[in-house]
Amino acid sequence: MSQISAKLVADLRAQTGAGLMDCKKALLEAAGDAEQAIAILRKKGVATAAKKAGRDASEGIVESYIHLGGKVGVLVELKCETDFVAKNDDFKAIAKDLAMHVAAASPLYVNREDVPEEVVEKEREIAVSQAEGKPPQAIQKIVEGKLDKYFSTICLMEQPFVKNPDQSIRDLLTENVSKMGENLVIGRFARFQLGE
């Protein structure tokens, strides 16, 4: 099976909490079989993030980054479950990488759910007008695709990681949840640019 539907990928992602690309790769490897794909993800340790996602992340750090020349500055709140992990050098390095990413990629929101509904509706209207003249069954897929692309530019969790564009920020956190054995959550961020 060379084509995996977006719905199948989204369903697997909802079940496991794994990143989109991890879900797609697992489904391709499993020839579209969702149960087998879950087993593949579990073997890779990605699905463990879903178990940890519900746990309270009340510790953490606020990391800062000032770009050379002092024209761009960022604060990122990265939360975890214990102060032990918050003091860990790997955790601090992730927070620093996230702050540098925010400086470079200029996201507007942490998650898709944070985007105001009126902004989403405006983008949906634009996508529908751009898809005008296409077959009705294709319009829905085109609109969803355009919205997904839009979210991947403005939502931090969906952006490709600047240090590894093959990996999203969500995938980066999921990978590190597995490594550290704790839930990691980006609480919020602020990006400042001189003159803006």
TrEMBL record:
Q: Which CDD domains match?
A: UBA_EF-Ts
Domain Translation elongation factor EFTs/EF1B dimerisation, residue spans: 57-196
Among SUPFAM superfamilies, the record links this protein to: Elongation factor Ts (EF-Ts), dimerisation domain (SSF54713), UBA-like (SSF46934)
- Which terms does the record give in the GO molecular function aspect? translation elongation factor activity
Which PROSITE patterns does the record cross-reference, listed alphabetically?
A: EF_TS_1 (PS01126), EF_TS_2 (PS01127)
Q: Its GO CC terms? A: cytoplasm
Would I find Lipid biosynthesis among this entry's keywords? no
Q: Where is this region: Involved in Mg(2+) ion dislocation from EF-Tu?
A: 82-85
Which is a Pfam family this sequence falls into? EF_TS
Listed NCBIfam families: tsf
Its biological purpose is as follows: Associates with the EF-Tu.GDP complex and induces the exchange of GDP to GTP. It remains bound to the aminoacyl-tRNA.EF-Tu.GTP complex up to the GTP hydrolysis stage on the ribosome.
Family to which this protein belongs: Belongs to the EF-Ts family.
Identify the PANTHER family for this entry: ELONGATION FACTOR TS, ELONGATION FACTOR TS, MITOCHONDRIAL
From the Swiss-Prot or TrEMBL record, give the protein name: Elongation factor Ts
Q: Which organism is it from?
A: Puniceicoccus vermicola
Encoded by which gene?
tsf
